[in-house]
Design goal:
By secondary structure, the chain is of the alpha/beta class. It has helices at about 50-55, 80-85, 100-105, 120-135, 150-160, 180-195, 205-210, 235-245, 300-305, 330-335, 345-350, 355-360, 370-390, 410-420, 440-455, 465-470, 495-500, and strands at about 10-20, 20-30, 35-40, 65-70, 70-75, 85-90, 165-170, 200, 215-220, 225-230, 265-270, 280-285, 290-295, 315-320, 320-325, 335-340, 425-430, 455-460, 475-480, 480-490. Strand 9 and strand 10 (about 225-230) form a beta hairpin. Bound molecules: adenosine-5'-triphosphate (ATP) and magnesium ion. Adenosine-5'-triphosphate (ATP) binds near residues 24 and 42.
Length: about 500
């Protein structure tokens, strides 16, 4: 290239953005070459999503400029950004739930056939082509609401690609994926970048970042603290984590084994599908029971049925040795069971309510119903929530802040806080640390260890192998709706889990 400077696909100069009570970005500059994978990392609330929302025209910066094609912009509109070839796969769910996958892929650019009518056949076929180029088996006629969160993510990526972008921005695209699915997305992204598309990639999975990044920008409290070129610098995971957090971070420390108590929960011959298997298992006091399995293996469905939130055809549930009927979540909560959901946008949060309301929402029904009592309890409630906010390092200007204004990871922490506030005996965590930064993750792991130390019990569904291995006292591996292995102590290794999950080992 004769030393001629390479042209950027997009560039941002000295971007600042203030929200009430928060400086989300402070003089951040950022650039991206065509064909480059430029990753952005930082703690929950560091400003990553805000930056990409500014690059894609969904937010206006207070200061700074965006440069595309030698044109300078004070701000972009979403339409301008699209026209300039900037496409985003957001953290939030933006698909139409009651419409097919294919129609979601081509929303706004429908395949038109004869007489100007929408050509559904073509829409399905073209969408299937895109999915298969993603290496994904997905029936494009399925309604989005019937797809798993990870399948929905593929639909979002498919939609962005259908618009043939020059810049593709992905905000935590693999957060809900198991190792295999995540790898499919990562290799797809490398593929996309080799086609000359510039990729901006946000993830809390630092191992992924180290694997695929050409450059890594680190944000902390709205400021850029570093930009590393992977080709020329020796960078490792610990180093990046330390820059993000500002101190040493301990990854996945093995939890010490706790003394197993009495049976806290017993499930006998639970059947959730007509032709499906019956499953039985026990959960002990003081135990973290890890639930492993591939996405779609039925892990969540089994636990939802236990919680009374999903279909249950037959089966017996005993809580603390007593046979119990759990017909709905309210009954489960009455019995001291809490379910921390994987899909925070859909089922987890009341987005228009404040942090304090979202935390106390399930706790409240425990209090006497009289208004007078409710009133009396308020200051104390506030105190407890305040303490949780501090313990989980939830980044919010106040307890009154509406949840929808919190960053993705901080929303997840509110869900966790909610159940901690409720003080149940049995916790079912479905992917508890999705989208949570490395330091908060280790705080949450400490909290979980504390809970079981105090005689509580935890069922933890996780796709993150190191998390399962570090935290579980026992692991059940689920395949095709059935428990195919029970691993204890030294048997709990990533390799063992994967072999059983894939059915290589019996
Ligand atoms: N619309 C908004 N109104 C008010 N505050 C906001 C809004 N959007 C973001 N914030 C705040 O700006 C800060 C940066 O948020 P941002 O979503 O960019 O974080 P993030 O780095 O993407 O975090 P995460 O890893 O949790 O997704 C946070 O403190 C957040 O609460
Ligand atoms: Mg974010």
């Amino acid at each position: 290239m004769n030393g001629a400077p390479k042209k950027f696909a997009i560039q941002a100069e000295n971007i600042s953005k203030i929200f009430p009570g928060v400086q989300a970005l402070n003089q951040v500059s950022f650039d991206l070459y065509p064909g480059e994978i430029h990753c952005i990392v930082g703690e929950n609330g560091a400003g990553k999503s805000t930056l990409i929302k500014i690059l894609s025209g969904f937010l206006k910066p207070d200061r700074g400029e965006i440069i595309v094609d030698s044109q300078r912009f004070k701000a972009l509109t979403p339409h301008q950004a699209q026209t300039l070839g900037i496409q985003v796969v957001y953290q939030e769910n933006i698909l139409a739930p009651t419409v097919s996958a294919a129609e979601n892929v081509f929303a706004g650019q429908e395949k038109v056939g004869n007489f100007g009518l929408i050509d559904h056949q073509k829409t399905f076929e073209e969408a299937e082509k895109i999915f298969s180029s993603l290496g994904v088996k997905l029936d494009s006629r399925m309604l989005v609401e019937n797809l798993s969160p990870s399948e929905q993510q593929f639909v979002k990526i498919g939609r962005a690609l259908a618009l043939q972008p020059r810049v593709l921005i992905l905000d935590e695209p693999t957060a809900m994926f198991d190792k295999q699915e995540a790898e499919a997305v990562l290799s797809l992204i490398q593929d996309i970048s080799q086609r000359g598309i510039g990729v901006i990639y946000i993830s809390h999975r630092l191992e992924e970042i180290i694997d695929i990044a050409h450059r890594i920008t680190v944000l902390k409290d709205g400021q850029k603290v570093a930009c590393h070129d992977i080709k020329t610098e020796q960078i490792n995971l610990d180093y990046i984590a330390r820059e993000m957090v500002g101190r040493e971070v301990k990854f996945f420390q093995k939890k010490k084994q706790t003394k197993k108590g009495k049976v806290a929960l017993e499930i006998k011959n639970l059947k959730i599908k007509e032709a499906g298997p019956e499953v039985s298992f026990q959960l002990y006091q003081g135990e973290i029971l890890g639930i492993a399995g591939l996405i779609g293996s039925g892990r969540t469905e089994i636990m939802k049925a236990v919680f009374g939130a999903g279909q249950k055809l037959k089966g017996e549930v005993s809580v603390a040795g007593k046979k119990s009927q759990i017909r709905n979540p309210a009954e489960a909560i009455q019995l001291g069971i809490g379910f921390i959901t994987e899909d925070r946008q859909k089922t987890g949060l009341a987005l228009n309510l404040s942090v304090i309301k979202n935390t106390t929402i399930v706790g409240l029904n425990k209090l006497p119903t009289s208004f007078f009592n409710l009133f009396l309890n308020l200051p104390q409630e506030k105190l407890i929530v305040q303490q949780l906010v501090e313990e989980l390092a939830i980044k919010t200007p106040s307890l009154e802040q509406e949840i929808r204004f919190l960053s993705g990871g901080n929303q997840q922490k509110v869900i966790l806080g909610r159940w901690l506030f409720k003080n149940v005996d049995i916790f079912i965590f479905d992917e508890p640390t999705i989208g949570i930064d490395v330091s908060a993750k280790s705080e949450i792991h400490k909290l979980m260890a504390n809970l079981v130390d105090n005689g509580k019990s935890i069922i933890m569904i996780s796709s993150e192998m190191p998390e399962l291995v570090a935290m579980s006292d026992r692991v059940l591996v689920i395949r095709e709706g059935d428990i195919v292995a029970e691993l204890r102590a030294e048997e709990i290794t990533e390799e063992n889990i994967i072999l059983h999950a894939f059915g290589v080992k019996n």
